[in-house]
Each structure stands twice: as C-alpha cells, then as structure tokens.
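User:
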Amino acid sequence: MIRQASAPVGAFALMVLFLFTPVLLAQVSPSSPNRATPQLGTKLITVWKVGDPYRGGTPDTAVPPSLELAAENLGYGLRVQAYPIRGFASLFFRAFEDHQPPDILVFNNYGVLEGTSTPIGSFTGIGSDPKIYAALVKVTESLSALEGRGWEYLIRTSPNFEAAASLALRPPECAANRGEPLPAELGDIAMQSGRAYLENSPSLKNFEDPDRLHTSVTAPKERHVETIKACSYWGTDHLAFVQATASYTSPAAIGWVSTVMVLRKLSDQWRLLAASADPVSNSSFVSDIPAVVRLITKPWTPNNAPEPASLLSPQDGEFPAAAPGARFGDFSWHPSTTGSEVAEIVEFAYHDDARLITVFFSGAAPATEHCSAGLLWTARGEWKWRVWAISESGGVSFSQPRYFTE
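Assistant: Predicted structure:
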C-alpha cells in the first residue's frame, strides 16, 4: 500500500479494515532502554515485546535494521521496549484505558493473548477484554523481524497507529532472490495468477491448469493485494516453480503473504497447476525445489508424462490410523512404474490452499512409498490428497485424488 516514503495509508485499507477511533498524538513513556536513543523530537513507533509464559524472562530490545530504515523513510523512529509476562496484562490494561497502548505488540506465545497456565504461573490474556480484542490488527510476515516465530499485532487506538500500519504495509521485500531470473513469458501469468489466487478472484479460472486440485473454501480470503513481487524462480521450458511475496489488506489481517506457485505449459500457454500460501510449502518445499529441477535432465517431448502413482491407504474418506506404539499413521502409495520417474510431490489440499511435500529416491523408486500424517495440521475441514510423478524430462502425471477430514 505504501509505495513511496512518507505516503499515507491508502484509503481502501482504512475503509475496509480500520474502522477505528481517531488516532491520538500522545506517546508511551519508555520503561526500558532501547538499542539506540532516537533524537529528541523524533516521532516514534513504539513496540512492546512480551516474554514467554513458559521460560519467563524479558525479551531483547534489538531494533532490526531493515525495519529501522523503513520507519525512517516514513519519518519515524522505532523504539522497542520489553516486558516479562508476569504482570504484563495489568500493565497493558492500564495503557489501553489511558489511550497509550503500544503501536506494535509482539509475543512468541499465544497465551499472551488468550491466557495460559504454565509451570511458572497462570497469566491473564489481554484478549479477555473485548474492547482490546476488537482493537487488535494481526500483521503477517512484514514485521516478523521483530520476533521471528511469533505474532505481531497493531492496536487501532495507539498513538501512531497509521504510521505502524504504513510500516506493516510497505512494499514487499524478498528474503532472498534465489534461482534464475523469471522469464518474460512467465512473468505476467505468474503474477496475475498469484494476485487472483490470493484475492480468491473469479478471474483465477482464466489462468488455471485443468488438472489443478480444488477444495472448498470455508472462509473466503477477502484479501486485497496492493503489490506482488516475484522473489524466486526455478524451472524448465514446461514446468516452473515461482515464489512471490505480496502486500495485502483484509478484514482479519494485513501485511505480507508469501505464495509458491507451480505452473505447467500446455499448448504453448503457461497454466497454474498449484498455488499455496501454506507455511510448509513456502519453507521446506521451496528449499527442495532446486533439487527437483536438477533431476529434470532430458529434453521435453510431448506426451512424456510417466505412469501415475497408485494410492494405497487410507481408503477414500478415511484418515490414516497410527500403528500400536506410533504417534501418527501413514499415507501410502505405489510410485509410478515408469523408470523415468525422478521425484514425486505429495499434494495435500485444504481450504483451496495446499501443503506440498517432496519425495526423492536414492536409486530406483521403491515398491511402496509413505508420508506421515504428522506432517499435516488440523484444518478442521475436508482435505484432498494425491501424488504427482515427475519424469526426467519434466512431464507430470497425477494419481487419483482421495479425501479425508481432519
């Protein structure tokens, strides 16, 4: 949403997302030292970091350089203050009542919001106050440098809410530019497909591969994509993997969202075969993509897809049961009988998203392959799963899909 330094938050985001009370101009008084003291008179975006309810202690107050620079481009300094979990809820309640909450709240355990009991004590969640819960705005990815694996929230009534929202909605950045430059013939279709996918737009049908696996959407995404940027590309002349990052607003959250797309060329046109904002697909799967592409060593030839894999268990409609003494059950299948198969992708689709998992072979494919149900999470809905077989020339075939509820 913010495309230039000091630009205001876009009207769309404020209309759709932020039906908030007027922003006040008072500032929170610091209660702990920051890494660097901003110059006197500098407007500040204040961050509060909260300690872990299991370990106790107080988080660090380091200011990530990338966020510090982004804040400076908006005309603000960035101040990080840290608090232990014990007593934090009372402190936050008082600050909220005094209209002095932090502009950004950061924690690594959801008990800070919902409350929890741990070996070191019982802690009230700040979300127990309905007014506070309603004032929170979740931020994804764009402020993650503050915590890493945790949560970041804005507070609509904070002194510098608009500036914090601008920081969260700055143009997306790539963690790393990996792979090759995105080919020109693929760039437009990939970015249009990614935007349509993230917005749940009907226009996505114009870009889809006929073999894309669909699942029902229980909660519409309702995202509005501000900017989308290609970050990584690997592929061949008929099979492509693209990772992109988009800035967005929605009724539930704002920030950035990473997306991985798999595209296949059919009749000289690139089509979207799969898309995913799932965190596993955008981390471990993306890390495996270069190895998949390196195994495609033969020239493309028409009608070169291998024989499809054949699913074994569980049966359609069933979830794999764990064996005695085991924590998780397995999904199992017979790999392709075609000798040219070099790798497989197991696709678990849910809520029109997908968890993609790679399978490599050391030598010939085994008679039976397995994938643990422990690699999934409880999505509270219907899943579909299937196995892709990829040949040494980039051809792809698909097993028949099955479904289960988890």
